[in-house]
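Operator note (shift B, R.M.): manual run for Alpha-amylase requested after the automated queue skipped it. Running by hand, logging everything below so the morning shift can see what happened. Input copied straight from the record, untouched. If output looks odd, do not overwrite the archive copy; leave it for review.
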Amino acid sequence: MKRNHTIMQFFEWHLPADGKHWDRLAKLAPQLKESGIDSVWIPPVTKAQTPEDTGYAVYDLYDLGEFDQKGQTRTKYGTKEQLINAIKTCRENRIEVYIDVVMNHKAGADETEKFKVVEVNPDNRTEVISEPFEIEGWTRFTFPGRKGKYSPFTWNFEHFNGTDFDQSKKRQGIFRILGDNKDWNQNVVHEFGNYDYLMFANIDYNHPVVREEMIKWGEWLLDTTGCGGLRLDAIKHINHNFIREFAAAMKGKRGETFYMVGEFWNPDLNNCRQFLDNVDYQIDLFDVSLHYKLQAASAAGKNFDLRTIFEDTLVASHPLNAVTFVDNHDSQPSESLESWVQDWFKPSAYSLILLRKDGYPVVFYGDYFGIGGENPLPGKKQALDPLLYARANKAYGEQQDYFDHPSTIGWVRLGDPELPGSGCAVLIANGAEGSKRMSVGKNRAGEVWTDLTGNRKEQIEIGEDGFAEFKVNGGSVSVWALADGE
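Run finished. Output pasted below as returned.
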């Protein structure tokens, strides 16, 4: 039988910049596997503009912590050697590694150049607000520390279509670069008129040489690291045709089972569907709309109608292409897309992604191990481990929903005969204590079930008709199942 798969996002924004994160991953790999994690999404592995940078201000895609560039040989997370060892250790523990790749922009250029631009309105990038003029921009990338190893390609302003700083005037703005066939790409989302430009020096995917180089780099990354998949950053800002071309090339290199998921931060389902159509469903998308529903439910408490929790979500409309998550590095407190799911609802939110048949769920490092920085938050490993255990061992078989009350919902998984003891009954309440009569099958008659979360202490015996009255505390979740060994 096919066992459930679970991803861990193995980083949060405030990890120490100590160069030891890849070692932490290698050390924790056996424990993660035992907990029910069989793939990890790791942060960008490429050299950024400073050794403290999280990796999204990417400088040199061919430097995985190997060359003395930008103040250090290692990245925030470690050296190339430590990275390769961590991936190897994960694979020895039957954990796939998905690498976060940043292909939208480049930062920390080696030299400036002078070129012609127009300034555009930041709130409507299709509106030009200046005559053409010359700026001195940070667009020349020569990678002197690497000296052409792995790729002789160097970057100049012709390979970008926008930047945000004029060195000669020490002035910020959004400057569209002028030249033959130079414009914003049209195959992007149309927030702010056109959202091709996000930050730094924006890569121009209208340029054939750029497309060729980025695909070569992707193939090199796969060969060098042996990773099992990629997480594609900020894809709503990248030419969607290039994403399709890139995904096809990576699958061509490693086979159809090579996994890719894209960060398309847009809760509009129609936009998500159009994007999936455009890339021929070669990649999955994070279910941003479900994340916002979970956040809304946590903020509204008992006033949220739990029966509607999956309405207008990607996992409901495209279950085979939805990667479900509760929170991540961008939604955590004080970050760019802060939309944190409140603590009281977090175990319930995780049960909604871990214990149902649809979606490929992600457990966030910050939720599991805690968040660092100036305002640290403790991890919820103790609350999440029983849910991971239930996903790995109990949440199988047909799913029957009991979404019949606004503040108490439940569902059952009837189990798989190939996995003795599998099957569970899940109950969530966002108001007062609740109960629900649910059927787990006549074949379970007489079995005694317990709450794996430990939130309810009593035991429940399954009736001759396969039904039982399952209970849940107020503002809580209970996962009822046959205890192992019974």
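Quick read of the result: The first helix runs from residue 21 to 35. The chain has ten helices and 27 strands.
Leaving this for review. - R.M.
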